[in-house]
Design goal:
Number of strands: 0
Number of domains: 2
Shape: elongated
Helix content: 55-70%
Order of helices and strands: HHHHHHHHHHHH
Mean pLDDT: 92
Strand content: under 5%
Number of helices: 12
């Protein structure tokens, strides 16, 4: 079982680093080299910004008062602490050698953006199975991946693939990180329900992740625990999320339980679920 080793989350800059780590495992759940390249690239950019800022630090000896001198010293101390911290994370990701092998930040950004629809598809499959297992066990066929795919084929949701092949491919690829995908789609849906465009929604999601990242991790954990525990029908006791493949958290989890609860299906989602008929096993 791969573990998201984010370290001490409550230290300076630690939540930002953890957010980057979540993005890397979502984009490349099975590609450690790519994850290290992304982290090293981002840290190198921050170090370059700090290098430029360092040239403009105030000189403590030039202060007109003791207050100016103290302020300049504090600025210098903060700058050195940031350089040391980011430099450590840069080295941890592989340093210059790793950056040299990376495709560049713009290529990484485009790559991540191209995965968004598949992230949403994988997250929605997990979320729909959870909602059905929690509230609709009486529906024909139980709460299954097949039924979730059937629903998504018939319900138009923004940025989500609609044919069975693409939905199943997304699930197969991103199943190890589907709990993060589900929590991300929840944020996207909240923004869309406020009447925001996809572009405006992206801005709101960034703000929410920056301000309430522990809440995001709490929500992802709730999806994770369900997926590791729930055994869909006709799977011979296998959990929805395989223990040996799914990205999970270390024991240190400094967040409260998620306040969000799985809601019952309603409207078109419920109608599609009621139309589903499980495939008949061949003799």
């Amino acid at each position: 079982m791969p573990i998201l080793d984010y370290g001490m989350l409550l230290g300076p800059g630690a939540l930002y680093r953890a957010q980057l780590m979540v993005r890397t495992v979502m984009a490349w759940p099975a590609d450690e080299a790519r994850r290290r390249q992304y982290m090293a690239t981002v840290m190198s950019m921050h170090l370059a910004e700090l290098e430029e800022a360092g040239a403009n630090l105030p000189d403590p000896a030039s202060g007109e008062s003791w207050e100016d001198t103290i302020e300049a010293i504090e600025h210098a101390e903060d700058w050195h602490a940031s350089v040391e911290q980011l430099g450590g994370w840069f080295a941890e990701a592989g340093g210059y050698r790793t950056v040299a092998a990376a495709p560049g930040f713009e290529a990484f950004t485009a790559d991540m953006g191209s995965r968004l629809g598949d992230w949403f598809a994988a997250g929605l499959i997990l979320a729909l199975v959870r909602r059905m297992a929690t509230h609709h066990r009486d529906l024909p066929g139980g709460a299954s991946i097949n039924k979730a795919v059937f629903i998504l084929e018939r319900v138009h949701l923004p940025m989500v693939p609609r044919n069975s092949h693409d939905l199943r491919r997304a699930w197969k690829t991103y199943k190890p990180v589907a709990h993060f995908c589900a929590a991300l789609f929840d944020l996207f849906l909240e923004a869309m329900m406020m009447g925001k465009s996809p572009e405006e929604s992206a801005v709101l999601i960034e703000e929410e992740l920056n301000e309430e990242f522990l809440l995001f991790l709490s929500e992802a954990e709730a999806y994770l625990e369900f997926g590791l525990r729930y055994q869909p029908p006709r799977t011979k006791g296998q959990p929805l999320l395989p223990h040996d493949e799914t990205w999970t958290f270390p024991e240190y989890r400094p967040w409260p339980n998620s306040p969000r609860k799985a809601a019952p299906l309603d409207g078109v989602l419920l109608r599609a679920a009621m139309e589903y008929r499980a495939p008949v096993p061949s003799a």
